[in-house]
Fold:
Amino acid sequence: MNHRHDTLGTGADTVPPALAVLRTRLDVALDGGARAWLDQALDEAAAHPGSHGPISVWELRIAEAGRRCGAEHAEAARVLLLHAARADAPTLARVYRQGTADERRAVLRALPHLVRGPDALPVVEDALRTNDTRLVAAAVGPYAARHLDAHAWRHAVLKCLFTGVPVDSVAELSRRAHDDPELARMLGDYAAERTAAGRPVPEDLDRVLALTGHPAAPAGPRSPRTPHGTDGEES
Structure:
């Protein structure tokens, strides 16, 4: 096995524990050639962070990650590259805007490790407007939990129910749904609309409603959870 790249390109003391774990898992999962490529790519990103010219070397490596590391591990590699490059909110927005759906998911996964304030919310909001369930699931992670306002967060939860994204994907769901009568009202209205139309109510709705601590939704058939995968636009 190649040497372990402990610093991830930015110094071991600055690496969030979750990303250190991610790198350890990649070291185990990748073959020697892929590990060597990732070591070099992370070194390049750390040596030339931010933006340099129309496109930085590390941005090219993000595009290569699927071919170099395989589809299963590409997202983790891209998150590590974004962190090594110390991508700020404008850079992340550009990478997201220009990227494939897979690259956009990596940007969304990287947000809580790179942006402290709400500057990257436009990226989250864009993902929540799509019908790609994998983008929606990535958008409702820890960054959204910290920075989406109450109105936008409630609609994000409803988006998950509507598209079949498991509510387990919603970071800090219990905390944010606790004692939220407006969310309970919205869930009740949604359940009533589904029931009146003769459509099943998503099973996860009852779970979220219980977290609000407010009355149960109208009785009606519950639909099994929709398989979590791409459903809609990838642009």
Remarks:
- The chain has a mean pLDDT of 87.
- The first strand starts at residue 201 and ends at 202.
